[in-house]
Amino acid sequence: CHTGDKLSLYKGHYANRGILVAISATGPGKGGGLLERPTIEKTTPGRESEFDLRKSRKTAPPFRVILHNDNYNKREYVVQVLMKVIPGMTLDNAVNIMQEAHYNGLAVVIICSQADAEEHCMQLRGSGLISSIEPASGEC
User: Fold this and answer.
1) What is the pTM of this model?
2) Distance of CA 3 to the CA centre of its chain
3) Cα(91)–Cα(81) distance, rounded to whole angstroms?
4) What is the per-residue DSSP string for 47-61?
5) CA 9 – CA 22 distance, rounded (Å)
6) How buried is residue 111: exposed, middle or buried, by Cβ count under 10 Å (0-12/13-18/19+)?
7) What crossing angle do the helices spanning 75-85 and 91-104 adopt, rounded to 10°?
8) Residue 83 has what DSSP assignment?
9) DSSP designation for 137
10) For residues 8 and 51, is the Cβ–Cβ distance under 8 A?
11) For residues 22 and 124, what is the distance between their CA atoms, to the nearest angstrom?
12) How far, in Å, CA of 117 to CA of 120, rounded?
């Protein structure tokens, strides 16, 4: 986690936000150019810009995606689903997660933002696996 982040420019939710996109200098030769008015990106109320989404993903508390054991799916299928659904999942990690869930009843698949955790959980469930999410309190 980053505490005391100097880049926390946007705190709280504002109905109408503007984000500085570009300032361009025009004019002949070196220097002496006139500054044009900056271009402001207006965001509609209730919609966040890409900048805000990226920032909230970095500062939001992390969540665990949990895989639960079931007696229906074959181990090979579980490994295939994990590799398809979770970005960057290797065969070795998928096998280890599958085995942990099989022997211990559950396993942590990934720790990520709440939005990503919800998406991964829904994809796992959509593939017939049992999955849940929970806050990963105390871990950064």
Assistant:
1) 0.57
2) 19
3) 11
4) ---HHHHHHHHHHSP
5) 17
6) middle
7) 130
8) H
9) T
10) no
11) 41
12) 5
Dist CA 20 CA 35 (whole Å): 14
Please answer whether residues 131 and 124 qualify as being in contact, where contact means their C-beta atoms are separated by less than 8 angstroms. Answer: yes
d(CA 66, CA 97): 10
Residue labelled with tokens 């999410």: 133
Tell me the one-letter amino acid at 96. N
Task: Give me the torsion for CA of 47, 49, 52, 56, rounded to 10°.
Answer: 60
Average pLDDT over residues 33-53: 57
Tokens standing for 71?
């007696």
Q: What is the pLDDT of residues 76-134, one digit of tens each?
A: 999 999 999 999 999 999 999 999 999 999 999 999 999 999 999 999 999 999 999 99
DSSP structure class, residue 127: T
Give the relative orientation of helices 114-126 and 75-85 as an angle to the nearest 10 degrees. Answer: 140
Backbone angles phi, psi at 7, to 5 degrees: -95, 15
Taking only the tens place, the pLDDT of each residue in 121-136 is: 999 999 999 999 999 9
Is 133 in a helix, a strand, or coil? strand
Buried b / exposed e along 58-72 (16+ C-beta atoms within 10 A) = eeeebbbbbbebeee
Partners of residue 19 on adjacent β-strands: 41
Token pair for 129? 């696996």
